[in-house]
Amino acid sequence: MEQDGTAQHSDTEQKMRVMEVAAAELQSLKSGRDVYIKKGAIFFRTDRTIAEKHVQGQLEELKEAATASSTS
Question: Domains plus CATH for the chain?
Answer without folding.
Answer: 2-71 (1.10.287.370)
